[in-house]
Amino acid sequence: MSAAAQPPPPKPKASIVRYKAALRKAIRRNRREPEIDFLNITAMLDLMTIILVFLLKSVGSSAASIPQSKDLTLPKSVMQSEPSQEGVVVIVSKSQILVGEDPTPIVVLPNREQLAQSGVDAKYKRSGPNDLYVVPLANALSHARETDKAIRAAKGLDPSSSEAIIVADATTPYRLLIEVLFTLGQSEFGKYHLMVLSGNKQ
């Protein structure tokens, strides 16, 4: 009679350390890089907005090309320097004040005699006829200042203050010019350029 068959020896059990190592290896082998299934365009929109504003400013009409008329005649100067292209245009004609490219008058001016004595009408001022602060002009400059601030930041310029190009009629009374300059200063405009017609001295 043959001897009874011996059972096969039991397989050695894997240790916990080897099991965890094999598990980590399998996870690394089967792991996939996360796929980007969305596109965050917020930053791209901000960049495109700045570029668009910059391009619009660059291709805008030059302040030196403002047409003259009976209502607006520029003063003459013997200076030969090129006009500044950086700044918000403020037009002061015989009958109205305009800001930027908006054809809507910001302030309708009274007759020259009143302008020479007390400037614009008291209804446009903050605290009576003797005040120098012109409220409608300040409101328009505030909007222009915000746009110019973004443009200056996009160009790498100091956005803490803006520049203004004043296109004033040659007969503008001193009182009116002072009111415009004062309102500009109160609206964070720190530098002004007065547009003139340059030519040789006669």
UniProtKB/TrEMBL annotation:
<dbReference type="GO" id="GO:0022857">
    <property type="term" value="F:transmembrane transporter activity"/>
</dbReference>
<keyword id="KW-0812">Transmembrane</keyword>
<dbReference type="Pfam" id="PF02472">
    <property type="entry name" value="ExbD"/>
</dbReference>
<dbReference type="GO" id="GO:0015031">
    <property type="term" value="P:protein transport"/>
</dbReference>
<keyword id="KW-0472">Membrane</keyword>
<comment type="similarity">
    <text>Belongs to the ExbD/TolR family.</text>
</comment>
<keyword id="KW-0653">Protein transport</keyword>
<keyword id="KW-1133">Transmembrane helix</keyword>
<protein>
    <submittedName>
        <fullName>Adventurous gliding motility protein</fullName>
    </submittedName>
</protein>
<dbReference type="InterPro" id="IPR003400">
    <property type="entry name" value="ExbD"/>
</dbReference>
<keyword id="KW-1003">Cell membrane</keyword>
<keyword id="KW-0813">Transport</keyword>
<dbReference type="GO" id="GO:0005886">
    <property type="term" value="C:plasma membrane"/>
</dbReference>
